[in-house]
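We were asked to recover a plausible sequence for a given structure. The inputs and outputs are reproduced exactly as logged, with field labels preserved.

PROBLEM: sequence recovery
POSITIONS: 144
GIVEN STRUCTURE:
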């Protein structure tokens, strides 16, 4: 994580400073609007989940202007091999309207999250030592 690309804020949840990597930026940030830091972070979480599931970023493009247009419109495709449970979670997190975007509580209610959270062996993994299940993504659970 690069905290040089982060922001601090008090009780006022609306921010105006753009920070972070363009590929992970929420539409409201790209549009230069005041934004809620948590809602913007949930968008970025959706980008990370998409990348971990699909192997590439949803809005990636060599032309930054094209990428920004796709982000602002929410134009991306989830591959057919992705389970419906994860599709629901990705779509909820990558919702253009921040007021309709999934909250942390919405994520915790998703069947994919609850299924992984309920596993007895879900204590974490050591890379190179433990087998990582295809549906694993353990770090995702521990940050929520």
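RECOVERED SEQUENCE:
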């Amino acid at each position: 994580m690069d905290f040089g690309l982060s922001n601090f804020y008090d009780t006022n949840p609306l921010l105006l400073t753009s920070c972070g990597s363009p590929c992970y930026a929420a539409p409201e940030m790209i549009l230069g609007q005041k934004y809620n830091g948590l809602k913007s972070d949930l968008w970025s979480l959706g980008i990370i989940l998409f990348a971990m599931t699909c192997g590439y970023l949803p809005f990636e493009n060599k032309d930054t202007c094209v990428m920004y247009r796709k982000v602002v419109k929410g134009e991306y495709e989830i591959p057919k091999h992705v389970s419906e449970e994860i599709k629901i979670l990705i779509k909820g997190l990558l919702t253009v309207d921040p007021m309709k975007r999934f909250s942390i509580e919405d994520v915790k209610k998703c069947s994919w999250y609850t299924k992984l959270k309920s596993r007895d062996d879900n204590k974490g993994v050591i890379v190179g030592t433990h087998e990582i299940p295809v549906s694993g993504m353990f770090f995702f659970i521990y940050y929520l």
